[in-house]
Amino acid sequence: MTEPLLSIRDLRTVFHTDEGLVRAVDGVSFDVGRGETVCLVGESGSGKTVTGESITRLIRTPPGEIAGGEIVFDGRDLTTLDEDELRELRGDRIAHVFQNPQGALNPVYTVGWQIVEAIQLHQDVTRAEARERGIDLLDRVGIPEATRRFDDYPHEFSGGMKQRVALAMALATNPDLLIADEPTTALDVTIQNQILGLLSELQAEFDMSILLITHDLGVVAEVADRVVVMYAGKVMERGGVFDVFERPSHPYTRALLDCLPGRGTGGARSIGGKLPSATDPPDGCRFHPRCEHAVDACRAGEQPPVYPVDGDDDHVVSCVHYEPGGDPSVVRGEEAVPTDGGRPVEGDTEEDDR
């Protein structure tokens, strides 16, 4: 099996605040394969954005700090690189597209100038060659009359067109990994579908991996190969998109899916309660205060290790009901099944979460 392009192990990112230490990302592990789309999903405040920004150390330091773990990209641990080494990768082999394209575009420069700058920063080409490539990129992302619009300013573009420009800038250096943070949230449904279709087309064209950060499970179902469900800085469940949608195994995943129209009993519903304090999270499973299946074992100790679902090491869940001797039917609403084969997945043991 080929090594993943990106491998994150036990990542911990904290913020030092007047209220205390915020554990925004607390022991997160997952992989992104080459040419694969992996979606980080969860409510706002789950730690998805901080996870994405931690990869290339975009978090503001101070108060932010990567407190532990590994971020291995194409065989190199990014946590060991100095700023100059990281800058060579950032924007070149790893690119970001953010939720608010207006914030990513400088209002006093034309979009063409900004694309040319991005190209020349990482590639040894003339300004004329960079301009030609920039126009081609604008055309590929669907900007009409790309040659003429190349010299327009950001305020002359609509929200959807700004997002396309931001995508063109991110693709300027043919990145191996695109980290897209809620790239369609501010767009209407029609434009959102166009952007998602465009991402899929460009992914195939550039042989690119995508880490997509979103709270929209409809988007996840449409584009993801694999899904990582986060809650309060922890991974609750991860697996192939089909497995997670057809066999949701953590109570939080099931609750998220029940919020979709047509999925919940009696129609879509909301999840009761709210995210726990980031400075004083509860003992045991982070989700237990909102979980209808919580038992005493859920309320003590650390976050449970991840266990395979039905013996599948590629579909794992952090829930005490899946430990050896547990009864996952409590969560899944099925007849009780034996779980003697349940075991923590290698690399995600209780010791890793301490």
UniProtKB/TrEMBL annotation:
EC no. given is 7.2.2.11
**What are the recorded GO MF terms, alphabetically?**
ABC-type nickel transporter activity; ATP binding; ATP hydrolysis activity
Source domain of life: Archaea
Q: Does the keyword Nucleotide-binding apply?
A: yes
Q: What is one GO biological process annotated to this record?
A: peptide transport
Q: Which PROSITE patterns match?
A: ABC_TRANSPORTER_1, ABC_TRANSPORTER_2
The main place the protein resides is membrane
Q: Which CDD domains match?
A: ABC_NikE_OppD_transporters
Q: Which UniProt keywords are present, listed alphabetically?
A: ATP-binding, Cell membrane, Ion transport, Membrane, Nucleotide-binding, Translocase, Transport
Question: What catalytic activity is recorded?
Answer: Ni(2+)(out) + ATP + H2O = Ni(2+)(in) + ADP + phosphate + H(+)
PANTHER family linked to this entry: NICKEL ABC TRANSPORTER, ATP-BINDING PROTEIN (PTHR43297:SF13), OLIGOPEPTIDE TRANSPORT ATP-BINDING PROTEIN APPD (PTHR43297)
The molecule here is called: Nickel import system ATP-binding protein NikD
User: What organism, scientifically named, is this protein from?
Assistant: Haloplanus rubicundus
Lineage, uppermost ranks? Archaea, Methanobacteriati, Methanobacteriota, Stenosarchaea group, Halobacteria
